[in-house]
Write a structure and sequence with these properties.
18 helices, two-stranded antiparallel ribbon, alpha+beta, about 475 residues
Length: about 475
């Protein structure tokens, strides 16, 4: 009986109910479309980083601040912190390899340096990798020229975008085998290292900063960033090279410095330094036997929740000074920013919803006051407060259902229209975030359900005060109004 009376009142108060439904439908549409786009961006970021850089879980040493793969997650203080090394790396690898759900792992030592190719100087993010396991773990890395870095080999790989940028600046395309000069500076002094270019690669779905990455052998990164290097064959040659790296810049250019090397000290020039660096290249440095690492990167079996794995790992290994983080923290601000945008967007929708609810309350109050005689008559013939409440709530519940369905349906049709247009995205960053060069928006059932539920809850929330106003109407009022 209450349901049929509610339906009748919906049709009788068309104008007011239409306005309420329109407000709720608009809020539902914005909530649904906004979160669908942001969820797609987040999914695109996840795929980009997990398939190419961070994996599903990254293990790092516990510190006062959270670290991404290239530094602190707080940009203001990033320059004042160095990435800590993992304690007992080899033992840790053995322990992690025995954990159920780990599909694969690799290690990485990270750093930053200035890179010189073809007289073009650019900053570079260095990924010192375990070549034996790194490339098989990340299917998002594709080879464009040359070959992949090999285990025990000194060399560097640059991205295709960087190679094209260098070619545009210098007029000559970087070629395989050409020297790559890397320079870094710290409290330990300046370090210089030269390695050959062994390959040019690209990411299938590059993130915001991934084109600035240089994949390189781990020993070079350790030397450039003053990280402990394990002993290896050819130590005498390496020590002579390190002597140059740690030498006083004034001594390097003195007349006596090169007296012990096959260089004419009387005709010293920048070419002399370059020739010296070439003499101490990878062929003569011996085979590496290890050293410190900053991170262990894990890929999990399908169906294994990264959050569950991280919670379990951190509980077991907290006393060892180790912390496991997800892909978002490991990739830094570029992945955290979309999450903040989503939070800000939903906060904005919350403010819009508050304004919408206030407007809906006023409209529903007008409808209630216009039915004072009807409600008073129902009270006079014995209708209880609960009956009056159920009548108003049922009416607004029906309006909310219609509004929620209309908002989600409108969003779905809008998605279909956008996808049908096949709009081309020219910006590489935006296209990588959205997972392709053609703009598409996916229908996400979870977001649709949440948006629909929010519409219903807002409609019911807007009914609370008008319902209490309705139950306060006395039967005598209906008598006075005839």
């Amino acid at each position: 009986m209450v349901f049929f009376l509610a339906l009748r009142n919906i049709t009788r108060n068309k104008k007011n109910n239409f306005i309420v439904a329109l407000l709720l439908a608009l809020i539902t549409f914005l909530l649904f479309m906004g979160n669908s786009i942001l969820e797609k961006v987040d999914k695109g970021l996840h795929e980009a980083y997990a398939e190419s850089l961070t994996g599903d879980v990254v293990i790092e040493k516990t510190g006062d601040i959270t670290m991404n793969l290239f530094g602190a997650n707080t940009p203001v203080i990033d320059n004042y912190f160095s990435i800590p090394v993992l304690p007992a790396h080899d033992t840790l690898v053995e322990l992690v390899s025995g954990i159920k759900g780990v599909a694969g792992m690799t290690s990485q030592v990270s750093g930053k340096a200035y890179m010189t190719i073809q007289n073009v100087n650019e900053p570079a993010l260095l990924c010192g990798v375990d070549a034996k396991s790194y490339f098989s773990l990340f299917p998002g890395i594709t080879l464009s020229e040359g070959r992949f870095l090999q285990t025990g080999e000194y060399g560097a790989m640059i991205t295709l975008e960087r190679a094209q940028r260098i070619e545009k600046s210098s007029g000559q395309r970087p070629y395989i085998g050409m020297p790559v000069l890397l320079t870094s500076g710290s409290t330990m002094g300046f370090k210089i290292r030269e390695v050959p270019l062994v390959g040019i690669f690209s990411y299938i779905n590059p993130g915001q900063f991934m084109n600035e990455i240089v994949i390189i052998d781990p020993q070079t990164v350790r030397v450039l960033n003053s990280i402990q290097v394990a002993s290896f064959a050819g130590e005498q040659t390496e020590n002579s090279s390190l002597g140059l790296l740690n030498a006083n810049p004034d001594d390097i250019f003195s007349e006596d410095f090169f007296s012990g090397h096959e260089t004419d000290s009387t005709a010293f020039s920048a070419d002399s330094l370059q020739n010296y660096l070439r003499e101490t290249r990878t062929e003569d440095r011996g085979k590496e036997t290890g050293g410190d690492w900053n991170f262990i990167i894990l890929r999990l079996d399908k169906g294994i929740s990264a959050d569950t794995f991280i919670a379990s790992f951190n509980k077991k290994f907290e006393s060892y000074g180790l912390t496991a983080v997800n892909w978002r923290i490991a990739s830094g601000s570029s992945a955290i920013l979309p999450l903040l945008v989503q939070i800000l967007f939903n906060f904005g929708i919350f403010l819009v919803s508050v304004a919408g609810v206030i407007a809906a309350i006023n409209i529903i109050l007008i409808s209630v006051f216009r039915r004072t005689r009807e409600i008073g008559t129902l009270r006079a013939i014995g209708a209880s407060d609960s009956y009056i409440r159920s009548l108003i709530f049922s009416e607004n519940f029906g309006i909310s259902l219609i509004a929620g369905f209309a908002g989600v349906s409108g969003g779905f049709l809008f998605m279909r229209w956008i996808n049908h247009l096949k709009l081309h995205i020219s910006n590489n960053l935006i296209s990588s975030l959205l997972g392709g060069s053609v703009l598409t928006v996916d229908f996400i059932p979870q977001v649709a359900v949440i948006s629909f539920v929010v519409a219903v809850l807002l409609g019911l929330a807007a009914s609370v005060y008008p319902v209490e106003a309705a139950v306060r109407i006395q039967p005598i009022v209906a008598v006075r109004r005839g």
